[in-house]
Structure formats: C-alpha cells, structure tokens
C-alpha cells in the first residue's frame, strides 16, 4: 500500500490537478464547502440538501481519501518519473520550462503515426488528418479523457480515471502500452509506461460480482485474492463456510444481444422461427457480432477467474477498503444468470434502431456479457434516454430511474412507453403527487433524487414507497443528469437502494468544483464520451451557430455598476438597456424567420422585466406545475407563442425540440456546464436535418463587466468541443427596430431608477433557489417583504402544489393571457396528461 | 518579401546624388551588382541592348524593338529605374529632336569591364595566396554565418542569454562547436538606433521588440541583411560626417556579393576604409576572418547579397535537414518570396485558440512566443495558445493585430489551407481573427471630444447655475463639482444665457 501523502506538499497539489477532470484553479474538493455562494465562487448550485454536519464531515473524509488516492497516482508523481530522460536544451527551451520534450527521439516513420504524448502530464496530441487518426481516436477515447476536439488536432489526457475506465472495459496493460506505442511518433516515454503499468496493475483487477444474489469478489489473479484475504479488514468479511476461492471461466459476450442493434433484428427473426426459445438468449453465436461489439476482449475467452464470497452487508466496507489499498473494485452484474430476481417483460419496439454511437457506448457497458456500472456521456439531444432504455431492455430486470425533476419523471415514463413494449402498468412513478407501484412482480420505477434522499419527515405514502424501494433488489439503476448530484447524495441513494448495476447518463461531466472524480468510484468509470462535432456533422444533433453579443453599458448604468455591490452588479448588467434592445432585436429577427426562441435568464428580476416588457411568456421556479405545462404546450404548438423566457429551471432535462434559437441574457457565473446544458436545449431541434439548417445560440454580454470574464470561462467547454463563438459588437440596423425599448435617455434613466429601487427594497427575489428539483434553503431563508412572492423552502413537489401549498398569483402579462384562454385551448396534450393522472389515481 | 527588400536598398540609393553614383559605378563589381539586383527584367534587356551601342539610341527605336504595346507599364517602370539609378540618361522631350537614351559613361565602362574582365581595379576581390585552413570549408562558413545571424534575430525577439546549439533542433545541424551568445554591443546599438528594438527596463532582458522589429522578422533573410547594412551605413555616415566613405563602403558590399563562397581573399589588398569595415561585417556574419587576420572568407550571407538564391540554405546535408525541419521562418530566412509562398506552412490555429506549430526552429518558436502562450514542445512540434494576455503583451510591444494575423495566415499549415480551399472559408478561423482584433481594440478606447472648458468661476453659485443650465440643454460633457469646472461641447448657448442673465 502506497504511503499516504498529505495534500500540503506542492507536488501533490499539482498532481491533483492532473488527476482531475479539469485543471481549473477552483477550490479543491477537499475544501470545506460553504453554503453561501460568494461572488467569485464558481461552485455550481447543485443538489446540496441540508446535509447535517456529521454527514458533511463524512463526505469530506471520503473525498479526501479519494483525493489522496488520485494524487498518489498522478503521472507527475515522482514514482513514475524517470529523471534525466533525454532533456535537450536550446534557445527555445526556456519558453517551455519543464515542458520541453523535444529530446524524445522521433521514430523514423513518424509522419505516418498520429500522436505525441507528454511524459510529464500525460497530455496526448492527436493529428486528426493523419491516416491512422480514426483508429487512434477509437483507442484514445477508451484510454484517455478528451480535452479538446476542434478541427485539426485533438488533445486527450491520460489520467488514472481514464485508465480505470479502459481497464474496466477489458483492455489489458500490455495492449494499452503496445497500441499506444504503435500510434506514437516518438518512443514511449518510460514515465508513461510506468504509469500505465502501475495503474492498471492496481485497477480493475478486482471485481465485485453479484451472482445468484451473492456478492463475490472476483479476480483473474489468484495471488491478488490471496492478498485481499490476508488483509485485516477484508479477510474476516469472507463468508465463512464457503470455499476459500472458487475458480470459473471468465464470461464472454457469448450471445448477449443489445436490442436495437442490427444483430438484434437478426436474432429476433431467429427467435420467431424457434418459438418457445427464451428471447435473445443463446441464439446468436455469431463471431462477427462478438468481434464487432467487443474487439478488445477476444483474448479473454479462456481466462480463469477466481472468486470468494462476501456478505451483503460487507459490500461497502470491502469497496472502501479496496480503494484504500489501491485496488478500486469494479462492479459487474451477471444478469443472465440471476434467477432470483424475476425477469421483466421489456423489449425495444420492433422498429427501433439505435444509432452507431449509442451502440458503441452500450457495447462498452455490456462488453463481456455482464452489466458494468459506469457513466455514459452523450451531448444533450443525442439520445441519452434511449441509451438508458436500451440498457434496461438488455438487462430485463427491475429498473429504478432517478431524475432531477418531476417534469423529467413524466418525460422518462413517456419515453419508456414510446420506445419499448413495456406494459404501461409496469412503469410506475414516485413523485410527490403520485406514488404508485407496478402491478407485476417487477417493473420500472421513475423518481427523483430528492424523493429518495429526502431524510426529513415524509408523508405516510412516501414512507411506504421508500420502504418498498429499499426492500427490493434492482437490476439497474439509471442515474439521469448524473453531474448535478453531489457525492453525498449518491452515497445515500446507493446505500438505501440496492441495485446490481448503475448507469449514469450526462452530457457534461464537469463541475466547477471538480467533484466529478468521485463519481468514478461511486458509480463507475466513464464508459464512453461522444464527440459533439462529429455527431453534429452526422446530423444526430443540430448544427449550431454560436455568437457572443457585446452590449455597451450606457454611461449612467456603468456609473452605478461601478459603485454597486456584487448582487446589484449582476442585476445591473442583466438590466443593461442595450442588452435589452439586442434581445428585442434578436427576438424580432428570429421570430420573423420562423424560429422558436428560448431566452434564458438566471436573474429573476430581469427575467420578469424582459418578458413582461416584450409581452412574452415565462416560466420560473414559482410557476405552478400546471401553468408550466400549459405554457410549454403553447410554446410547442401555438404559432402565436414563439418566444419563451426561462429561468435556470429550464437548463436541464427540458425537451423542446421546437426550439431553434436560444438567447442567454444572464447566467450563472462561469459555469461551463450551464452553458453546455443550455446549448443542449436546441441541439435536438426537429428541423436539424433540413438543408442548411442552423440553430442559433446567442449569449448577450454587457461590455466591460465581470460578465465578459465569466463568459469566456463559460465557453471553455464548448470551445474545446470545437464550437466557435463569433463576437458581435454591433447588430446591424438595431436602431431601426420598431418600438425599440429604452431608446431615449429618459427611458433609460427611468429603467435604472426602477431597477435600483426595486432591488434595494428587495421586493424581487433575484436569487432563485428552485433548481427544478427544489433546493432547500437551509439557513438561507430570506424574509419576504411586501406583496412579493411568498418564499418557502421546499421540494419541487411542494412547490408544484403537491402538498397543498397556496400560491399568490403574481404572473402578469403573457402568462396570464394564456391562462385566460386555457379552458378554450385545452389541447390534446393536457387531455392525455389528465387521462394519465386519472389512471394513476385509479 | 523580396519586394520589400529591393525597396529598402533602392530607398537608400535614391537619396544619393548623381556624383555618388558616378563614384559608385567606377567599380565594375558595383555596376554589375546594381545590374543584377536593382533592375527590373525589362531594364536589364535595355542595358544589354545599349551596352555596346556606340551612340545614343532614339527612344522610339527602343520601343519598336523591345517593347510590346501592352507592355507599356513595364517599359515606363524600367526606364524610371534606369534613370533613378543613373544607369542611363534620357534626353528631355523636345520638339525638334526625338528623345534619345544612352548608358552613363561610368556604368557603361564598368559594366563592360565586369563582363570582359581585365583591368587592375581589383573590384572582384584579390584571392589570398596564403595556404588555407582546411577546416574552413563551405559547411563551416554556413554554420558560422547562420549562427551569427540567428544570434542577432534572437536578440531582436528577446531570447538572448540562452545557449543555443545551432537551432537545428532535432535536425542535427552538427552544431555545438559554436556556442550561442548575444551579438556584439555595436550590433545591439545598431538595432536600437534602427528602432528594431526598444529599451524597456521593466522587461526581463531590458529590451523589447518594436513594430518595425516585427516587420523586420517577417522579412526574408536577404532583406534583413540589407536592412541592417543600410542602418550601419547611415550610422557610419553620421559618425564620419562624410559621404565619401560610405560610397566606398557600399561598393565594398557590392563587391562582397561577387566573391566566391569558400574562397579566401587577401585582407591587405583592401583600402583602409574597407579594412575598417571588416570587424563589423564579422559581427553580422557576412565574413569570417581566421586568427592571423590576413585572409577573409565571405559567407553565404555576403555572396548572395545581390542574388536571389537563399543565403542561409546550404547544400550540405546536415544543414539541409535543419532547414527543411525548421521550415517556415527558417525557410523564409533567405528564401526568396516565391519559395516562401510554396514552402510548407507550419502553424495550425484552432477555433479554441490553440496553436500548433510544426517546427523545431528556436527562432520561429521565439517569434511565436511573442504573441502566444507556449505550452509544450515535442521534437518538431510546439503547442501553445493565443490568450488575451499574450496578444495584449504583443500589442504593448507595438506589434499590431494585423501583423499577427498575417504572420499566422502566411505560415498556415497546408491542412488549414486545404480545408479552407475545399470549404470555401478563410484559412484562419474567423472567430480567432476577430478576437485578436478585438483584443487590440480593447486598448484603443480613448475618445476625444472637441469642446470648451469653463473654470475659474467667481462664485460657486455661478458655477452651479451655469453647469446646471449646460446639463439641461444637453451640451455638458463632463463636470467636476469639486474642481468647479465643466466641459461643454458648445459654448454659444451658455454665452447667450449669461448675457441674458446679466441684463
């Protein structure tokens, strides 16, 4: 066991950066979190519930341990560095400091090889125009983290996590090193060689398998198991009386068919010819299929594996212990041999075909015929839901789906019904409003994170439901938008609900506070990450033109801005009248083109002000569920409603394929994730495959304010994905816009006065804590004043009326207008919704 | 780029009076050099035609024989060049007599001598009769001159004080024997005087590159050499205060251009003026002088002064490897414009502001370092990134956004040009180009208002009343209650208002 090093050492500090998914100088994960977000804090507002001190401490401790582990295993850690390896110096060397690797000799045929690797940090540079680029890309996506993927040269980073993922999908160290060497222009630096050797030696060697409902610790290396058995913690946890070590043969993909793939179609035909056969099992012994789905694994066929059994209760201890001693454990689920949990009748609709990249990602998950736990990263709109559903259809056991909001709970359920042949009664929903169980012996439960982690008083129904969830064994746990959930919540979810395999889905595996790395150990490695640009070129997601519009602050506003406090500054740059005009201009322009527009504002005051002044509909945290539904339906179907203002509740999981244009007027500091998520709202545009179609993404920024700085930070992720933000400093003919708002200095001054007065009085809440799934304002409860919205802490369920909370109507303008016509315009969507509700009650 | 180069020399020559030219053309080597270097193609044809002509030739005849009607422009240009360099005389147009052209006497005689040989003018150098050190071969001279020249360029880009080994990078120029050093103080002073660099005490090396310096870097080596030599000539002119020496010095430079590479020449056969020049020319890397000082060897930098082949490329193998490895700037070091245009570009600019340059030339890296934040270096490849800070730093040196953009565009990697050609878009990502310009604009935000300042009021009340009135009618631009002064765009309404109040 490597000696633990304190993070205080500078070497460890830099190493931590290399190990993490992002190298931003944000507070390290081990830093205690404070609940009040200071101005400069980049910490995202996430599902941080009112955790008790004890829990926080525990999380910190665990976090620290994981950190230390990561630090110990970073490449620049001394243990891998072979000092004095061919350093060559010349006049240009000082520009690079230690990062001059020109001493590494090039191979004679280096022109035909596509990659370089930096022996210090493991950064890999890939030539996309090289003949071998395609193969190299496939290989690198498996072993390294993609960092930058524009047109010509891509950058990847070799990290402990990425190697962990590579090992978990079945690559062996030997293969990794050989293949890497084959693609490298230079000789393989010895530090990298050591790094891979040592990481992979410790990674992925031990697996935790739930077989016949008993937990086994499994390894191909018998010595390893012996070592574990001798370990003071793990040894005693072995189930007494069972064989010390059993030996079987490693599983293979052998006939497992992921539904929705081409092979699946063939299997179905075969199954039809042989009625009575179990569907999709042992029918296709197609070697091609095997090769296609899992090229890397084919040597594993005949390998012996060894295992010993541990008790159910010991699982977490063993996992933790294995992490401590440097052998993180992989979880696998041999679902085909699970006879205890009943099978679920579910299959994809016959006409469903999954896309190549979805197939690729799933083949990583089901690589050896078992289900591995892990995370799949696909851009928004690229069909994450379908990947989840296909995984459910492959495992065919009880499934629990966790999403971020009750809105997406409804969407998930609909998607299940749409893509699979599951009996609607078997898809149950557990939210504040409806708590029903499925009819059969097994089924699917869709719920939210907050419902299952809520540890305060529950209603009788919820409590019963939770007991039901906890009392069962689930085959698959689908974790939607996995990036938003802090480690602590995960621990609670995972400890309370028992599942054999976990699949996390997200578009943006980044958090400004870098807590992502812990997900690797809590859920599993990142199994797959798609390339945004490639998908958009192939037409799977929309092509987007991104632009940043610079809006001058009028002098009087800027004056105030300079004097204002941090909160007021934010309000002021959002309320910049020039920004307002730009927004108005862009809305006019795009409505005339026939686009459907979403305008995002984090700032509630400006959201309302903009929407009301322009006479558009808006949704924010305080909008009731039924009103939200109503507005969304109108936005989708009513040709009169083309622009929708959304607060940050719309950032994620909102499926609006009609939207083709997006304008962002205020945003959450430098959150790269929010930017990417918002862009995701227009990636699934229905019209994306029309000739020459482009979706538009505008980010309006007040010039010379902090917004400029945040904006460049926010774009970092998308820019690295190959998106280019065009800066627009002047909108042509903006002054000719009819009814241009705040055109006169007089009006501008009035706006300024109003903004200042309104916000000083505090009548308007500028901080929205409802993140679609109810952020509880632990200790932050703000006293409401005057006639403003009543503000109470609560979950979304409560906010949406689930617990009979009363609301004060405060929406004016377009929202109200819509409401008036509500009765008359009640469309099919709501009828359907009502019917469903009816049925759920019954 | 050779265009820029010729201009510079011609700019200098144009300033010279006719007498200087007469003196210059006494040397056959000078006449020959001017003929080779300074004349347009058609003018050379004219010279050849006129050279052995016994008397003046009517201009109309010249036109009939050698000029096509559509070549009128070229003919005019050729004649203008001949006249301004005092190579030929053309009689003024008159009613009675047709215009005639003839070569100037000195030029004609020297040119004939240059072609025929003979005479004891020693204009083409006197080869040394002493034995030659066998180690001083062409390969050695090439490395020597390249080293000297790169030291100067490195000084310009601020990378002095760092030991360099020939700059061949992985190419293996076989260097190491000649260690890197910063150029002589005299050369530094010259660069300062020419405003190629400026003193800046706050910078690491005490000097920073200027806008002119950046233009200088982008030129071909030939042009660079001439720029420096002309600076030197002007400086020496100022020192001595007479032009006579500088004429001799200039002819010596032209003479050097006609010497043979790898051959030793006799130092003693030179005039005193020319002998005095030798140490400086050694500093520039134009000549090499062995320890006994009785011989001098012209280097490629010198022998190619008036030709169009590249001075810094050699046939020797190691050097060729280095040159091809360090294409881009190193290739443009002396490569004529046509070659530069065809040379493989090295730089890839991505939409995420990352820069990848396929180069191992320390010099090109140093140039990149002027406006990029460099990150990693591999054999034959460097990575970096354009940041707001790195561009702004370059801009504070006086390098303009357009210079950076044109540098990136002219050195763009073939992959970029190919993709650009196939998609019909610009070579550099437009967002990056825009952003570089915007970064420059950030520092140019001063706006001036013409107007009138009111101050020194008798009473604060008067100030208050008038400034309030100015604000009301909207002419007030700025006011300071503390200083009791304000600034308006128009004063007439205030004047009228004051008058009306006084009444």
Automatic annotation (TrEMBL), chain A:
Domain Helicase C-terminal intervals: 581-735
Stored SMART domains: DEXDc, HELICc
Comp. bias (Acidic residues): 42-52
GO BP field: nucleotide-excision repair; transcription initiation at RNA polymerase II promoter
GO terms for MF: 3'-5' DNA helicase activity; ATP binding; DNA binding; hydrolase activity
Biased segments, Low complexity type: 8-18
Keyword set, alphabetical order: ATP-binding, DNA damage, DNA repair, DNA-binding, Helicase, Hydrolase, Isomerase, Nucleotide-binding, Nucleus
Any GO CC annotation of this UniProt entry: transcription factor TFIIH holo complex
The protein's name: DNA 3'-5' helicase
Family: Belongs to the helicase family. RAD25/XPB subfamily.
Reaction equation(s) it catalyzes: ATP + H2O = ADP + phosphate + H(+); Couples ATP hydrolysis with the unwinding of duplex DNA by translocating in the 3'-5' direction
Source lineage: Eukaryota, Fungi, Dikarya, Ascomycota, Pezizomycotina
Organism: Lasiosphaeria ovina
Compartment list: Nucleus
InterPro entries listed in its UniProt record: ATP-dep_DNA_Helicase, ERCC3_RAD25_C, Helicase/UvrB_N, Helicase_ATP-bd, Helicase_C-like, P-loop_NTPase, XPB/Ssl2, XPB/Ssl2_N
Residues annotated as domain Helicase ATP-binding: 365-527
Region of interest (Disordered), residue spans: 1-57
Primary localization class, coarse: nucleus
Gene3D superfamilies: P-loop containing nucleotide triphosphate hydrolases
Top-level taxon of the source organism: Eukaryota
Enzyme Commission no: 5.6.2.4
CDD domains: DEXHc_XPB, SF2_C_XPB
UniProtKB/TrEMBL annotation, chain B:
One BP term from GO: transcription by RNA polymerase II
KW DNA damage (keyword) present: yes
Single GO MF annotation: double-stranded DNA binding
Subcellular location field: Nucleus
Broad class of where this protein is predominantly found: nucleus
UniProt KW Transcription keyword: yes
Top-rank lineage group of the source organism: Eukaryota
InterPro entries (UniProt xref): Tfb2_C, TFIIH_p52/Tfb2
UniProt entry keywords in alphabetical sequence: DNA damage, DNA repair, Nucleus, Transcription, Transcription regulation
GO cellular component, one term: transcription factor TFIIH core complex
One Pfam family, short name: Tfb2
Domain annotation Transcription factor Tfb2 C-terminal: ranges: 434-499
Function: Component of the general transcription and DNA repair factor IIH (TFIIH) core complex, which is involved in general and transcription-coupled nucleotide excision repair (NER) of damaged DNA and, when complexed to TFIIK, in RNA transcription by RNA polymerase II. In NER, TFIIH acts by opening DNA around the lesion to allow the excision of the damaged oligonucleotide and its replacement by a new DNA fragment. In transcription, TFIIH has an essential role in transcription initiation.
Family: Belongs to the TFB2 family.
Name by which UniProt lists this protein: RNA polymerase II transcription factor B subunit 2
């Amino acid at each position: 066991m490597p000696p633990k090093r304190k993070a205080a050492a500078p070497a460890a500090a830099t190493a931590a950066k290399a190990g993490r998914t992002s190298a931003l100088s944000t507070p390290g994960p081990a830093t205690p979190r404070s609940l009040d977000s200071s101005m400069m804090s980049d910490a995202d507002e996430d599902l941080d519930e009112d955790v008790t001190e004890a829990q926080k401490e525990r999380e910190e401790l665990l976090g620290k341990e994981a950190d230390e582990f990561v630090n110990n295993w970073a490449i620049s850690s001394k243990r891998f560095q072979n000092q004095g390896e061919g350093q060559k110096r010349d006049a240009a060397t000082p520009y690079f400091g230690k990062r001059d690797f020109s001493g590494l000799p090039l191979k004679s045929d280096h022109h035909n090889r596509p990659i370089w690797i930096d022996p210090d940090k493991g950064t890999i540079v890939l030539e996309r125009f090289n003949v071998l680029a395609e193969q190299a890309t496939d290989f690198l996506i498996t072993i390294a983290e993609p960092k930058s993927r524009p047109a010509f040269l891509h950058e990847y980073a070799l990290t402990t996590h990425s190697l962990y993922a590579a090992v978990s999908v079945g690559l062996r160290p030997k293969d990794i090193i050989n293949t890497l060497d084959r693609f490298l222009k230079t000789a393989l630096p010895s530090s990298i060689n050591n790094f891979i050797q040592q990481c992979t030696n410790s990674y992925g060697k031990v697996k935790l398998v739930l077989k016949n409902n008993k937990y086994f610790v499994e390894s191909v290396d018998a010595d390893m198991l012996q070592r574990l058995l001798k370990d003071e913690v793990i040894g005693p946890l072995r189930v007494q009386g069972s064989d010390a070590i059993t030996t079987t043969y490693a599983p293979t993909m052998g006939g497992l068919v992921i539904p929705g793939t081409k092979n699946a179609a063939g299997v179905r035909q075969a199954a039809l010819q042989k009625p009575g056969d179990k569907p999709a099992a042992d029918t296709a012994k197609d070697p091609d299929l095997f090769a296609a789905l899992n090229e890397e694994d084919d040597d594993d066929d005949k390998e012996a594996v060894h295992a010993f059994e541990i008790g159910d209760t010991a699982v977490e201890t063993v996992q933790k212990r294995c992490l401590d001693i440097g052998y993180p454990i992989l979880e696998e689920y041999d679902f085909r041999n699970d006879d205890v949990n009943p099978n679920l009748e579910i299959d994809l609709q016959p006409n469903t075909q999954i896309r190549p990249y979805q197939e690729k990602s799933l083949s990583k998950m089901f690589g050896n015929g078992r289900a591995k736990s892990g995370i799949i990263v696909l851009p928004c709109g690229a069909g994450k839901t379908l990947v989840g559903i296909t995984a459910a259809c492959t495992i065919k056991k009880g499934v629990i789906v966790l999403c971020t909001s009750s809105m997406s709970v409804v969407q998930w359920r609909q998607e299940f019904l749409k893509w699979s042949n599951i009996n609607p009664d078997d898809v149950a929903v557990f939210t504040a409003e409806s708590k029903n169980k499925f009819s059969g012996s097994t089924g699917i439960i869709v719920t939210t994170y907050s419902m299952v982690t809520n540890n305060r008083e529950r209603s009788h129904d919820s409590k019963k439901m939770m007991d039901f969830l906890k009392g069962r064994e689930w085959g698959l746990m689908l974790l939607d938008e996995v990036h938003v959930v802090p480690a602590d919540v995960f621990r609670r979810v995972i400890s309370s609900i028992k599942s054999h395999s976990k699949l996390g889905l997200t578009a943006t595996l980044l958090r400004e506070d870098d807590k992502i790395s812990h997900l690797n150990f809590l859920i599993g490695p990142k199994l797959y990450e798609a390339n945004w640009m490639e998908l958009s070129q192939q037409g799977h997601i929309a092509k987007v033109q991104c632009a940043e519009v610079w809006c001058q602050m009028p002098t009087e506003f800027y004056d105030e801005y300079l004097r204002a406090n941090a909160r007021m500054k934010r309000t002021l740059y959002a309320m910049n009248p020039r920004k307002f005009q730009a927004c108005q201009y862009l809305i006019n322009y795009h409505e005339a083109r026939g686009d459907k527009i979403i305008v995002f504002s984090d700032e509630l005051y400006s959201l309302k002000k903009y929407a009301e002044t322009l006479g558009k509909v808006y949704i924010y945290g305080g909008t009731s569920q039924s009103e939200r539904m109503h507005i969304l339906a109108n936005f989708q179907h009513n040709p009169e409603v083309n622009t929708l203002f959304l607060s940050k509740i719309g950032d994620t999981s909102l499926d609006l394929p009609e939207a083709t244009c997006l304008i962002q007027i205020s945003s959450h500091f430098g959150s790269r994730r929010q930017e990417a998520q918002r862009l995701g709202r227009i990636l699934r545009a229905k019209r994306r495959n029309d000739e020459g179609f482009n979706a538009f993404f505008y980010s309006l920024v007040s010039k010379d304010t902090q917004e400029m700085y945040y904006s460049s930070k926010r774009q970092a992720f998308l820019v690295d994905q190959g998106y280019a933000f065009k800066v627009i400093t002047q909108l042509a003919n903006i002054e000719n816009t009819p009814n241009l708002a705040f055109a006169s200095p007089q009006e501008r001054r009035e706006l300024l006065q109003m903004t200042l007065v309104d916000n000083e009085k505090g009548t308007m809440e500028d901080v929205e804590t409802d993140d679609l799934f109810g952020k509880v304002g632990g200790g932050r409860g703000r006293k409401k004043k005057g006639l403003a919205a009543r503000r109470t802490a609560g979950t979304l369920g409560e906010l949406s009326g689930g617990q009979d909370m009363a609301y004060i109507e405060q929406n004016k303008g377009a929202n109200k207008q819509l409401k008036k016509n509500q009765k008359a315009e009640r469309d099919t969507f709501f009828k359907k919704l009502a019917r469903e509700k009816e049925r759920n009650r019954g | 780029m050779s265009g820029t180069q010729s201009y510079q020399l011609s700019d200098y020559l144009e300033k010279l009076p006719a007498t200087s030219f007469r003196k210059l053309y006494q040397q056959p080597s000078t006449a020959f050099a001017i003929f080779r270097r300074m004349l347009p193609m058609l003018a050379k044809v004219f010279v050849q035609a006129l050279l052995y002509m016994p008397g003046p030739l009517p201009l109309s005849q010249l036109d009939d024989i050698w000029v096509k009607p559509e070549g009128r422009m070229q003919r005019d240009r050729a004649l203008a060049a001949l006249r301004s360099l005092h190579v030929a005389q053309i009689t003024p147009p008159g009613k009675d007599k047709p215009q005639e052209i003839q070569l100037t006497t000195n030029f004609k005689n020297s040119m004939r001598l240059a072609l025929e040989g003979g005479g004891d003018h020693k204009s083409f150098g006197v080869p040394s009769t002493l034995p030659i050190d066998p180690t001083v071969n062409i390969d050695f001279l090439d490395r020597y001159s390249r080293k000297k020249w790169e030291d100067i360029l490195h000084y310009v880009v601020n990378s002095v004080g760092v030991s360099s080994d020939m700059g061949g990078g992985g190419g293996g120029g076989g260097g190491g024997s000649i260690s890197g050093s910063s150029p002589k103080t005299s050369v530094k002073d010259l660069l300062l005087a020419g405003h190629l660099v400026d003193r800046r005490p706050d910078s690491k090396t005490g000097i920073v590159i200027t806008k002119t310096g950046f233009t200088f870097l982008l030129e071909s080596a030939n042009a660079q050499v001439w720029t420096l030599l002309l600076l030197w000539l002007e400086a020496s002119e100022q020192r001595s205060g007479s032009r006579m020496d500088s004429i001799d010095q200039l002819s010596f430079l032209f003479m050097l251009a006609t010497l043979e590479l790898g051959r030793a020449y006799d130092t003693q056969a030179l005039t005193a003026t020319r002998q005095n020049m030798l140490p400086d020319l050694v500093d520039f890397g134009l000549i090499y002088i062995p320890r006994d000082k009785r011989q001098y060897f012209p280097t490629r930098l010198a022998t190619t002064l008036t030709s169009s082949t590249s001075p810094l490329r050699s046939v020797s193998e190691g050097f060729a490897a280095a040159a091809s490895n360090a294409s881009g700037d190193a290739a443009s070091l002396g490569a004529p414009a046509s070659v530069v245009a065809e040379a493989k570009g090295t730089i890839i600019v991505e939409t995420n502001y990352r820069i990848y340059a396929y180069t191992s030339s320390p010099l090109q890296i140093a140039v990149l370092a002027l406006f990029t934040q460099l990150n990693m270096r591999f054999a034959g490849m460097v990575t970096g990134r354009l940041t707001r800070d790195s561009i702004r730093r370059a801009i504070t040196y006086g390098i303009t956004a357009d210079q950076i953009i044109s540098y990136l565009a002219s050195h763009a990697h073939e992959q970029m040009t190919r993709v650009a050609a196939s998609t019909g878009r610009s070579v550099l990502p437009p967002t990056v180009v825009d952003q570089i310009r915007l970064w420059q604009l950030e520092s140019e935000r001063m706006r001036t208002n013409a107007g009138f300042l009111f101050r020194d009021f008798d009473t604060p009340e008067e100030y208050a009343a008038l400034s309030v009135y100015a604000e009301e009618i909207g002419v007030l631009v700025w006011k300071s209650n503390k200083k009791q002064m304000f600034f308006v765009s128009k004063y007439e309404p205030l004047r009228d208002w004051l008058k009306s109040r006084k009444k």
